[in-house]
Amino acid sequence: MNEDIVLGNGAIALGAIEAGCEIVTGYPGTPSSEIIPEIVKLAKRFGRQPYVEWSTNEKVALDTAFAACLTGKRALCCMKMVGLNVAADSLMSSAYLGTIGGLVIVSCDDPGPQSSQTEQDTRLIARAAKVPVLDPSDPQEAREMVRYGFALSEEFQVPVILRPTTRVCHARQSISYGEIQHDFRRALFKKNAQRWAATPMYRLVQHGELNRKLKRIAEKFDEAAPSNIHNMEGDEVYPFGIITGGVPYAVVQDLLFEEGRQQEIPVLKLGAPYPFPERLAVAFLNRCEKVLVIEDTDTLIEVALRDRRKVYGRLSGHVPEQGELVPEVIHQVMSNVLSEMGLRPLREDTSWEAVEIVKRLDLPVRKPNLCPGCPHRAAFFAIKRMNPKAIFTSDIGCYTLGVNMGAVDTILDMGATITMAAGFYHAFAQDGLQQPIVSTIGDSTFFHSGPAGLINAVYNRARFILVILDNLTTAMTGMQPTPALGIRADGSEGGRISLEQVVTGCGVTCLETVDPYNLQEMKSALRRAKAHVTDPQGGIAAIIARRPCLIAYREEGDVRRFRVTDACEDCSYCIEHFGCPALIRDEEAGCATIDDGLCSGCGVCVEVCPKKAILEI
Amino acid sequence: MEVFNIVICGLGGQGVLFMSRALAGATMLRGYSVITAETHGMAQRGGPVVSHLRIGHAKGSLIRTDCAQLLLAMDEGEAYKNANFLTKKGHIYVNTSSREFPVPEMQTYFSRQGITYRKFPALEVARELRAIKSANLGLLGYCAAYAGEPFFDSEALEQVVDRLSPAQFREVNLGVFRAGLEKGLQEQKGQNTERRRKGIMNNKRVR
Question: FRET pair for A30, CA 20 to 30 Å: which of A311, A368, A502, B185?
Fold first, then answer.
């Protein structure tokens, strides 16, 4: 036995390796991104050779994992919850077809949201797709649930979803390593077109089979300790009980322990909440006068309980309907409900005084910002200068932060920069208006969801400038390689896909590749692009702004140094329009100055300054 | 044992996560269970970064407001913003060279709650050693000099910093850590002498 402090995503990876998982696919997205790299590390450590890939998107990942599980192998597919939307088509259908080897889909939720577009609840998607879902409360439980998920998937021939939230994925916990018990299997595919290529008539049969499976799984979940368990004793009746699961379960346990009220307030934990363990839940409900439901992030359990007169939760207005259920929120909710019932509330939290004081201090709000020297900033600066009146559609990645520069107007979902640009174009063109539109997208996001939208835009004669911000990595989620690099998830050599070829392959005839650090060149490329977009014979104009991410490709050695000269007239143009964190206003001297600790030495600001007051030393 | 809660805060790039990992590692080295919560993704790009560290048998990774015994802050503003996590009689260590910390309203709050605060110019100390990126370890070293808990000892911390540091930063990291530790120990010695002297002057106060 070997104890270590392990990231939640590492614990999930460990569970997969321990379960003998042989196929791993996924697309990065916070908070799920570390699972695949951790599997690569653990496989080396335990001398295993699972097949591991970064897929181009989540649907691709799930299709791939699904096929692999049909050969009898255990497959794991990892993504964040918005990725599961992309993979929804694959998920819904795979539930009908069912599995042979275990298939566990890890879809990480992000209550808050800390780093996502939505606060959606994967458990509800599991219900929509009719697949079982497991909701771990900490890293150790996530690891155990991966193993349990594989066994469950094989027993009932159905995909299983594991839904950890940010506080599981990005928690670190002391964990002991164990043995690997699973036997490895040789790939074998038994043809059965009636099942694997089922026509609508057989889909109806499969739907019936799936419904029967769910009933059996619900019965299993009635007795699925330690995932589903309560601490009621004898046949006592309690005035008040709590039903919870996932991370809120951990918080509730800590709170009741701190307050010494574990005996008085029973807790039913539903770590396996769907298919709903009705018998277990109803038995608990019958022994409480009132029950409070605390769950992340929607109302799966609360809706399933049905008894409105007995149940407090989101639907009764006792639990906030949005935002993360952090411990102080749960503390407040529990205290309020206890008071309302005439029971003793929890010990008062007096820290609100500090919050009031801090509010009055008027501290500066620290917004996330593009790094000093980020090539995206240079590209956005040129785009904004050359197209001041354009609509700027953009996408998911670090470059979302172009919003600070006024160079991002819309963000919807992966790839929507292109499809929305086309939508804007057609809406204005219908009225005979030439609305300039500049669409920006990162390299990895383009590979994920760009081509289908771009083909559609070219086919339907939309016109806009498309700038692919190519920093040769997936920066936002932790520098995963893209298909253009020819490096795979395990570090081995992969095929290399040229971004230029994909863009031209989608039918774009006007394409240039430039270095965004060279502002003059970037500006003239944008000028030519604009001419093409407005030319009667023209169309979509694409520019690949290529410059490696400064963090991913950190260079050793001396950086170039710059200073602000006396020519600075304190106009603050550089600070307001370029917004590099290294450019700050020297209040005493009354001019701009460069923070050498932050400056990366990119030198782009030399060209930004209208007074030519920045020089290299 | 009661769960011991530590909040570590600062801004993206100030090494908050490294401090948290070093502390967690040192705690485990002494045989304690630990669970931590980290900030990843969007929030890391220059925005506020907070790490929660819970020692003992906690189930959840997040610390509730009014429950942390210790707050380590790499930035003054973030120290204020996270002050509501501190429990009564908690301790706060801040990287700052400003005389104005804490502002009077906060000082009143601290004394009412019995919260002890200590300031340490970690960035200045690190700059003197030409290693501004290692300022986080200066604050960690300084705090280690004061902390009396069995899971917070400087030897274990030094061992973990050594293990976690990438080869090219190992020496500077350890250098800044030791400088912080040294400053803290000296300061304490000074305070003890001062206290003793005062004790003698006040006569018979010291047994």
Answer: A502
